[in-house]
Amino acid sequence: MSDEVTYFTNAETGYVPAKLGQRSSQQKPMRILQFVVQDVIPDVVKFIVCLIPLILNGLIGLILPPKKKSIVGQTALVTGGGNGLGRALCLRLAKEGCNVAVVDIDMVGAQRTVSDVRKLGVKAEAFLADIANYEEVEKLKLAVEDALGPVDILVNNAGLLAISSITEGKPSDLQRILNVNLLSHFWTIRVFIDEMKQRRSGYILAVSSILGYIPMARCIPYVGTKFALRGMMQALHNELKIDGYEGDIQATTLYPTFIATRKELMDLIRDVGLDEKIAFLTPEEVAKEAIDGMLRGKTSVHASSIFIRTLLLLIDLLPTAFTSLLIKTVTGKLPPLASRAKKDAQNSTQNQ
User: Cβ neighbours of residue 195 under 8 Å, at least 6 residues apart?
Assistant: First the structure.
């Protein structure tokens, strides 16, 4: 018998709906009462009992942060490590004593990062790979293990910053954004996590964004991937815990605010009048906070000010109208897509 699982199939005669047994109206109140007594009340009591130590641990953590773990001698793989935040993450991991595999499609940038990492006294190699391609990720694993050994720390940093709406660009552009920003995380985790489980040791750090919380307009494809990544990593953390790997394999998601690395991002910030309202972070600041949080066992690292973190908390608690009002208040009125397209056309004409 084949172990292969088949998805998306129906019965030969078509869709078959589920059938529920008929219950009399007299039975319903008793069944509800029975459900409350046998299921709801015990679950509520269990929840409260389990919640108390979590609250105590949280309060203790505020006073005495968890001890930072050592990763000296371990091997870290960083996607998009040739430039920007990825490069800063490579250097930060090297300072922690890691050997570093720098993965990028920009080999000039990757080699430059490798040269600087080696100056810190650890091993480093550059690898060319399209991580949106599963077969290339499988080949990458073999190449990295051959050069540096098994991967202990997987840092999924590579991403495409897409300042565009859902109707802009070619369909192939949208597909590429989804593949690099989201699907590549599935491929790399799928390829590297099994050996982490065998060793009962490993770290997975995913770089999301503040836009994984705030649904900012004019960045719909990018925002969609970052929201999805947030849910994916939370589900991965829960699955590792259920499967008995809590404390062995750490799944951490980084949510940085705006980093001074990309020209297109800076242009968007100026267009919406945020350039004087937002304090930009350096890649080095974000990398330090990300690695420190990961090594202290945090599942979420918010590289932002206390003000921004408070807003994120409110966004989780309050309705969607609050988020819309917040974005409108901070950014003002965004220009319509038609006027933006006209401006892009004018700029293109002037550059010809």
Answer: 150, 151, 202
